[in-house]
Amino acid sequence: MATAPTLGEPTPGVPEVLGAEDLLGVVVEEKALVVVPRARFQVYVSPSRCFWRLLGRNNRAYARSADSSGSAEEMRDLALLAARSAAGGNVDLMSARGREWEWVLTVDGVTVARSNGAYGRRVECLASVERFRIVAQEAPVTFVRFTNRAAARPATPTTLARLRPGSSFHNG
Length: 172
What we know:
The termini are far apart. The chain has 4 helices and 9 strands. It is an alpha+beta fold and 172 residues long. It has helices spanning 72-85, 122-136, 149-152, 157-163, and strands at 23-29, 32-37, 40-45, 50-55, 61-65, 90-96, 100-107, 110-115, 141-145. Helices cover 23% and strands 33% of the residues. It folds into 2 domains: 1-37, no CATH class; 38-149, Roll (PH-domain like), CATH 2.30.29.
């Protein structure tokens, strides 16, 4: 069995996408090299929108951007602002009739980050805020090209018939 390389050493067969300083560890199993990245902000970029999510080591989403109307550079800057202000930023809890709880992080009146979803209990929402505060401070920013899955699917005969003039599906 091969020994695992230490951090900072180049690993044969692993692309330098993350860089050695971004790796938490390398696990070597029978002929399989698994790279485990640490938590990171991922900026998703598409032609129509751009947004970020804070993902943990297990790819669980901790937070997301408040909107998706900015450019990739603006989303990167908002993710970095969320990271810098995570420890001491103003976090407000919101609830619809005490049933579903969400949080938002605001800096100078601007919503920078929000919970990734709603929580059934207030205590779960507070725990989510604490996880965000811990994880966000050290998370690097990465970029991902975002494609619309529906647009990427091949057309079915039914879909093509709907688009063809004169077909029984065509509404024109």
